[in-house]
Write a structure and sequence with these properties.
This is PLD phosphodiesterase domain-containing protein. Keywords: Signal. InterPro entries: Diverse_PLD-related, PLD-like_dom, PLipase_D/transphosphatidylase. By secondary structure, the chain is an alpha/beta fold. It has two domains: 204 residues, Endonuclease Chain A (Endonuclease, Chain A, 2-Layer Sandwich), CATH 3.30.870; 217 residues, Endonuclease Chain A (Endonuclease, Chain A, 2-Layer Sandwich). The protein is built from 14 helices and 25 strands. Strands 13, 15, 16, 17, 18, 19, 22, 23, 24 and 25 form a ten-stranded mixed sheet that branches. Strands 1, 2, 3, 5, 6, 7, 8, 10 and 14 form a nine-stranded mixed sheet that branches. The protein is globular, with a radius of gyration of 22 Å.
């Protein structure tokens, strides 16, 4: 409590006056932000890391001119009285204990920003049952300064959604991370993101991506899509007509505000020199902060929505894994890991990340630690793909000529109560659930080597890189790298992380 209070005071003194700063005001600042579910007493807190709820509120409170928000869905206000909701049947005392008020206070901060005549643009997927787009629609209702649009990426790719979680305030302050606009993402789900304050160089580039998505929402997809034989993934699928998969005779000029004219290729080539910007980032939440400019980057998905020489999101993940030094450690945290597509039909096989892992184990003798969520909606096939990665350890030592000392370690993150989520009552009968639906899960999506930190919005499944919107921020800033390592190790070394070898496919411990 003492540390968090100090951090809050530091933040308030340095950040709340930001809107009055001029464009020339020096000092891009960054804080890591995370959400920690209630009832996890054995998870150590990393000093200097902000809470997601505070970050969202500050972004709304500090907005004086404009606020852009990309969200998969909205459920900031809990609905324990609605029989259709996963919150149904819980008492007021339960909801208070769950921290549901954190979500409603964020929604109130957004209402206040709207009432201050801040220009607000809200872009999201069609939402989830039962609320769908009710909350952003209510914010826009009767307010000409608030625009709300829905983008269905499935109409452009045959599958895929808006999965990005981004806030941009005053074209200067940005949140990029895993947290949805959902009250549970603030207090019942483990989330990780980065909060960049006074960083117009970064914010304006993320805004370009926002504008591309915004434009897409107003276009007739049937006039701009083609079915192509995808040679890279060996399937026929729908893509925008400016995709690299289409040859020049079939392709069209991109209608997006910013784009790059790209020639036909069989797949998406890896950029040999993706755009990096040298930027000095202060890190007030870390004991060591440097003003030396370090290389940082942004990456985007799907590739057809990128621009300039920004890399596709998959490359950024792969390059982060490969940034590890000889004998170093790569740490990867994700909700889902699957070496294939999840939604595209027919299914495609996808080995990009697993190949990168095996390569650094062999060539750099690296240790790769992978933390994957085990929860109520665990994806079938995950266990098999993860345990196939462990075979790299067998191959590494299969011959004396390999001289290989690297290894892969994998753990499941099991938030207490993950198997007791859902409405408290159903049809007048107690369900035995003790937490609301779609909660109690590690939802973060990030990787950190000994040199580079990468914080994203995408699950590690093919669809999230080729048919689904996502944004990542990465940096070689040593303070951010160090602190993100601490966040990972706190999870990894907690009693909530269990080696995959000790868990069967039903989530039960193997008997000794």
């Amino acid at each position: 409590m003492e540390v968090s209070t100090i951090v809050l005071l530091i933040f308030l003194s340095t950040s709340l006056s930001l809107p009055s700063h001029s464009e020339s005001s020096p000092g891009c600042k960054a804080w890591l932000a995370q959400s920690i579910p209630t009832d996890m007493p054995h998870l150590p807190r990393v000093p200097g890391v902000l809470s997601t709820g505070d970050v969202f509120r500050w972004l709304a409170w500090n907005s004086t001119q404009r606020l852009d928000v990309i969200a998969q869905y909205w459920q900031l206000n809990a609905h324990p009285e609605d029989p259709r909701s996963g919150d149904y049947g819980y008492s007021k005392a339960d909801m208070l204990r769950f921290g549901a008020h954190e979500g409603s206070s964020v929604y109130k901060a957004l209402q206040d920003a709207a009432d201050r005549n801040v220009s607000i643009r809200l872009l999201s997927h069609s939402g989830v049952y039962p609320d769908y787009t009710t909350e952003p629609s209510n914010l826009a209702s009767g307010r000409p300064n608030v625009e709300n649009v829905t983008l269905l990426l499935g109409e452009w790719y045959g599958s895929g959604i808006v999965h990005t979680k981004v806030w941009i305030s005053n074209r200067r302050d940005v949140y990029i991370g895993s947290a949805n606009n959902d009250w549970k993402s603030l207090t019942q789900v483990k989330e990780v993101g980065i909060y960049l304050v006074g960083c117009p160089k970064i914010a304006k580039k993320v805004e370009v991506y926002f504008d591309n998505l915004w434009k897409l929402a107003y276009l007739n997809s049937s006039a701009y899509t083609k079915t192509v034989s995808d040679q890279q993934w060996q399937t026929n699928r729908k893509v925008p007509c400016w995709s690299r998969f289409l040859d020049s005779k079939e392709s069209c000029r991109s209608p997006l505000p910013q784009f790059v004219r790209i020639p036909h290729v069989a797949g998406y080539p890896i950029l040999s020199d993706p755009y990096m910007f040298k930027i000095s980032i202060q890190t007030p939440g870390h004991s060591h902060s440097t003003l030396r400019p370090e290389s940082s980057y942004l990456s985007f998905a799907p590739p057809e929505l990128s621009f300039g020489r920004y890399q596709a999101d998959q490359q950024a993940w792969v390059d982060t894994i490969k940034s590890v030094g000889s004998g170093g450690t790569v740490r990867i945290s994700t909700m889902d890991w699957l070496g294939q597509s999840q939604y595209l039909k027919p299914t495609v096989y996808w080995s990009s990340l697993s190949s990168a892992v095996s390569e650094v184990v062999f060539s750099k003798h690296a240790t790769v630690k992978i933390l994957v969520a085990y929860w109520a909606h665990f994806i079938n096939g995950t266990d098999q793909y993860l345990k196939s990665l462990l075979y790299s350890n067998v191959l590494c030592s299969s011959s004396k000529y390999n001289r290989c000392s690297g290894k892969v370690e994998i753990k499941y993150y099991m938030v207490p109560g993950f198997n007791l989520t859902g409405p408290a009552t159903q049809n007048g009968t107690s369900t035995g659930n003790i937490y609301p639906g779609y909660s109690r899960v590690n939802h973060g999506k990030y990787a950190v080597s000994d040199a580079r930190a990468h914080i994203g919005t995408s699950n590690l499944i093919w669809d999230y890189f080729y048919t689904t919107s996502g944004v990542s921020f990465g940096t070689y800033n040593p303070a951010i790298v160090s602190q993100l390592q601490l966040v990972f190790e706190a999870d990894w070394n907690s009693p909530y992380a269990v080696p995959v070898e000790e868990i069967d496919q039903d989530g039960q411990f193997y008997s000794s």
